[in-house]
Structures are given as C-alpha cells and as structure tokens.
Amino acid sequence: MSSPALPAVAVDGVSKTFRLPHERVHTLKERALHPMRRMGHEAFPALRDVSFAVDDGEFFGIVGRNGSGKSTLLKCLAGIYAVDRGRIYVNGRMSTFIELGVGFNNDLPARDNVMINATMLGLSPREARRRYDAVIDFAELREFEDLKLKNYSSGMEVRLAFSVMMQVDAEVLLIDEVLAVGDAAFQQKCFDEFARIRREGRTVLLVTHDMGNVQRFCDRAMLLERGSIVELGEPDRVAARYLELNFNRGETDDGTPRDESDAGRYGDRRAEIVEAWFEDEAGERAKTVPTGQRAAFCFRARFREPVADPLFGVVLADDRGTPVFEASNVLLPACGGFAAGDEATIRIAFDCVLSSGRYEATPAIARGGSGVAWIDRRERFASVVVTGARSTDAVLDLPFDLEVLSRERR
C-alpha cells in the first residue's frame, strides 16, 4: 500500500510576533527632562497559530487586508523571517518573488544582475548564462541590457526580476503582488506564464488583492485577518468573504451604513429613506448574491408630508463608482399619493448578470413633472457582493451561446 503524497508546502501552528517601540525620546531636552524614561516596546502578533497545507501542483491564493499578515507569512515561508512557534515544511526547490529589487545591485547593468540573481535562486553559472537570452527577451529589455539598474524604471525592474524567477526550475513559487507593477502588456505575459505553470503542475502561492486573479487562477485560497485564518477553501467563497470584510466595515449586518450622518444625502425630506437592503432569489436579506440568479434591491420610506405620485428608483454602481444599473417607476403607471405618517417598502427585482465584485446602491425618492426634484436621495446607502461570475474584465456576465457556423480550408 503506497503512502499518501507529501504536500508541497505545510505550515503547522506558525506564529510570528514583532516588538514595536511605542515611545521615543526625540531630543536632548526630552532626555534631560525625563532622564528615567525608558524605551518601551509593544508586542505585535503578525501571525497567530497559522496552519494549512498546499498540495503538489496546486495554485494557492493568499488574500487579506493590508496588515493582515500575508507578506509576513511569505517571508517566513522563504526563510527571511524565523518563526517564533510552529514549523514550516517545503518539499522541493523554492523560488521567491517577494520584494521588488531584492538581490539586485543598482550599480551593475542588467546583464550582471541577471547572472547574480539567477545564481542566488539556485541556477549554476553555466545554466544562468544559457538562459540569459530568454530572460532578457521575455523582459523586453534587450536594448537596455548594458544599462545600470539605477537608471531603470520600477516597471523595467519588475519585468527583469519576474523574468529571472520564471527561468528557475523551482517546484514551488512564492509570488507577492507581481502584477501590481507593469503595463497591461506585461501583465498579460504574467497571465500567460501562470497558465504555463499550471500546465506544468508546479506549485504556486500567490499573494494578491485582486479577487479576479484569485478566481481566475487559484484552485484554493485563504483569507487572513489580523494574523489568523478566517476563511480557507473555494476561491469564490474566499473572494466573497474578502470583499465583505474589506468594504462592509461601516455597515450593519443587512448592508445598511451605520453612520446616519447627512453626508451624500440630498432632498427636501418630505419623505425619508430609512432603511435599504438586498434580497437573494429566495427573498431573504443577503449581503452576497450569486450571478445568474434573480435578486432584488429594497428600501423603506417614511413620509413626513403628503406627496402625490412620487418617483422611486435606484442606481447601482461598481467599486470604481461607474453606474451599471438604473431602475425607476418614471415610465410606469403612477403609484398614487401618500399621506403624512405613511410608510412604503419599494422592491426592485432584477436578473443579476453582474460580474463578481462589490456594488453600491443609491436609492432615491423624487417628484416628477417638468424636472426631477429630489425628496430624498442617499448616496451609496447599501451594498452587495456578487459572486460566482466567470473571470472577466467586463461589468456584466451575460449568458451567451457560441457556435462555429462554418469552417473553410484554403
């Protein structure tokens, strides 16, 4: 009976704490006035009992907000930081792309830096020379190969560093935000290289803030928050949890902002929007809805004065602020009048064909006629996270059929 295959990477109960100074004596005067004052330190736990395993050939995403422990974890995996507790196992040769320019000498030209960096990553000098042309050509730096690195732009430097890493035959790759620098053409090259790595069955641990890349490339993903794992599993589920955690900090459990200030609010307040939420296909309140299903946006209005035939509507915008959906009853039959003290609940149902991401809703009540006059309009009053869409750069994930109608050979 054969033994089970060892994981490519195993992390068992790893913790890492940094000591941060919390008081400094800046001047001689302060030292003279407070001679007995001592420098204190505060313990900052960057990683707290982190345990997970990455299988051989798996593309594994690591996500989290700034300060959650992602980069610290990668540096522990790479051996840059020693762990305080726990153990790390890596089965195979590992190559890292963690910080831009690490291992480079700015006073040397690209030619020398490629040789030095490739040797540091494990290639023999002979193998580094053999692969030099492939590195320079991939980085598209042939005409700058004899230029000192201190004259390179950050984009040129990251292209060179990434190209060197891709030429190392490592079984395990650690990559920290490689796509954050570089133009669109270089990013596409990175995508192509990731696809090649997947076909070759190599193991990749990718730290990123881009949930599209997590859903596009990763077999599994992990979400860190304050040094602890809060979600581990399917990329769609981890991406949805990340978006909720990252963007819904100021909202209640139903997605309505906690802050009741008048910022981003317009109108004469004859009626007030007092609550807003999203519903899933089952009609339950939801902070996430899957693409391809029926969903609804609802809000509750309270009338302070009589209003005849008000207009109700909503604008939905993506996380860049681009409106992607608008709905109102402006072209529908009049809804009738409301008296002071009346309350109304408005429900706007729609087919959710949006791509994955976070969307904010701006509900409004207005009076029609020759021009719209706002009664109450509340900017970005509620939000929802859409999950499960195909990886796409488009706003919509529309259903479609594609077929090849003819084929001609010439």
Automatic annotation (TrEMBL):
InterPro entries with a match to the protein in the record: AAA+_ATPase, ABC_transporter-like_ATP-bd, ABC_transpr_TagH-like, Bact_Polysacc_Export_ATP-bd, P-loop_NTPase, Wzt_C
Family matches, as CDD domains: ABC_KpsT_Wzt, Wzt_C-like
Entry keywords, A to Z: ATP-binding, Nucleotide-binding, Transport
GO cellular component: membrane
Keyword set includes Transport: yes
Positions of the ABC transporter domain: 28-251
Keyword ATP-binding: yes
MF-aspect GO terms: ABC-type transporter activity; ATP binding; ATP hydrolysis activity
Family label: Belongs to the ABC transporter superfamily.
Protein's name in the database: Vitamin B12 import ATP-binding protein BtuD
Organism encoding this protein: Capillimicrobium parvum
